[in-house]
Amino acid sequence: GLCCPGRDPACLSLGWRPDGSHGPCYCDQACARTLDCCHDYAEACPVIPCVVSQWSVWSGCAEPCKTTYRVRRRHVIQEPRNGGEACPPLEERAGCVEYWTQQGTECKQSLIPALITTGGFGKARKKRAAADSNERAGYCVEFQLVAITPGCLQSHHSYTHWMQYLREGHTVCVECQHPALDSRSLHCYGDGSGSKKNQLLHWQAVGNTQCKGTWKRIRQLDTCSCPSVHSFLFI
Asked: What is the reported pTM?
């Protein structure tokens, strides 16, 4: 009739042990490790693992007009018992950007961090878009890098090597191409349009959340003229 969680020396009985000897035996969870369980422990105290529900749908972004997160949750259907497998995490978060306020108006561009990646991906975009003659033409924005987090230099994956070329004070070019070019506003989110002169704007690298910083918008051009290591794309 005993079945005790954890280690409990008082959870003691008298009976047969698994090795065939007779005498004091235990019915606590620790007996499986110390090998002094009563012979019927496994049947009387079966291992019951944690059982959780399916994930809920993802929530909306935590806050509009900034890079935040969204959440999904699940709940415990059955608690673990008798040394059963512990419950997994019940909440997950993922990065999220919402470009519209709760009132349905578009966010001010200066509030939105620009999400950028290396300009090398632009060649593939142009090939896919070549057949679409109705596509709107893109543009380029020059920025002066003001601040860069140390995380940009700690990118060791092949797809993040481009971040190591970012240097404070350098001028960089960022292209706004389809599909990042919004069909309603005719600009890319985070391009700094509407910002004041010399206003500090925020950017974040895609592929490494630790690589981000600030820059100042210099001007908008039809085409980019920066070297390839300083040429990027809006996402």
From this structure: 0.51
